[in-house]
Amino acid sequence: MSELVFINNNKICTDSLTVAEAFNKKHRAVLRDIRDLECSEQFRLHNFVHTPYVHEQNKQTYTKVVMTQDGFSFLVMGYSGKEAARFKEKYINAFNAMREKLYAISQPSYMITDPVERAKAWIREQEEKQQLELRAAEYEEKADYVDKILKSPGTMLVTQIAADYGLSAMALNKILKEEGVQRKVGKQWVLYKKYMNKGYTKSHTHIDSEGNSRPNTHWTQAGRLFIHEILKRRGIEALEDIKIATADTEAR
After folding, report:
1. DSSP character for 50?
2. What is the CA radius of gyration of the chain?
3. Residues linked to residue 215 through DSSP beta bridges, in sequence order
4. pTM
């Protein structure tokens, strides 16, 4: 069996493949369990990340979910039985052991007596400091952009949003359906109840060439950022950057 936990973005994590192996479950069943968790969207965004991986045997690309210790605890809370209890205990021990290891290597350089180890620790500290400064600059830039976008009153069709990621409207609608975000009523995609009243969409009436009218769903900028986070969890990035449609939204 592979290692139960690992370090990802300076957090102790595990993933859905490892959980499936440890608890003797099908991977698709674990993905379903994660999808069906009745947690807040904020908790989900902070503790579960969809990540692409290449299958060792068929070399095809699939999706797994990397989860934090809190995410793991929330997920396996519902797993019962003697065998499940045994693996819960193994996971707890693995998380604690990894935390102790992180604490040991994160000891400040000035507290290390061995000169060689002190020098190594100092170099590591400087590298981490540079990474933190770069990350802080990126977060500040993204925060400014998000604030600008959320203030924009413009809306977008799903076709326009999908194009930013090299997807078709059909493909994006399918992803949103798989994520439990929307369902089709007649010819219109509508949000499930949990996502209504969040300001993600607006309904517009479309008149076709024959004079017939039908409702059509448009996404607000808050909805567009919501979609961006969903696609990001799946490892799908915008073709250039999330900023690509600033001019489009402000021109509407």
Report:
1. E
2. 22
3. 205
4. 0.41
14, containing H or E segment: strand 11-15
Instruction: Specify the residue for token string 């250039």.
Output: 240
102's enclosing H/E stretch is helix 82-105
Helices 221-233 and 115-150: angle between axes, nearest 10 degrees:
140
The residue count of the chain comes to 252
Single-letter amino acid code for the residue at 68: T
The model's pLDDT over 75-85, given as tens digits with 9 standing for 90+, comes to 888 787 777 77
pLDDT over 90 at 147, yes or no: no
Residue-wise DSSP of 37-51 = ----HHHHHHHEEEE
Residue 246 confidence (pLDDT): 39
Element (H, E) at 185: strand 182-185
CB of 39 closer than 8 Å to CB of 74: yes
**DSSP annotation of 26:** -
Non-local CB neighbours of 103 within 8 Å, separated by 6+ positions: none
What sign for the dihedral angle of Cα 199, 250, 142, 237? Answer: positive
Secondary structure (3-state) at 47: helix
The span from the CA of 236 to the CA of 215, in Å, is: 29
| Residue 185 to residue 191: CA distance in whole angstroms | 10
Nearest Cα to 215, choosing from 236, 251, 173, 185?
A: 185
Does residue 146 contact residue 226 with C-beta atoms inside 8 Å?
no
Token readout for 207 is: 């008149």
In the chain, the amino acid numbered 178 is E
Q: What is the pLDDT of residues 150-176, one digit of tens each?
A: 556 678 889 988 888 889 999 999 999
Is the pLDDT at 201 greater than 70, yes or no? yes
pLDDT at 106 over 60: no
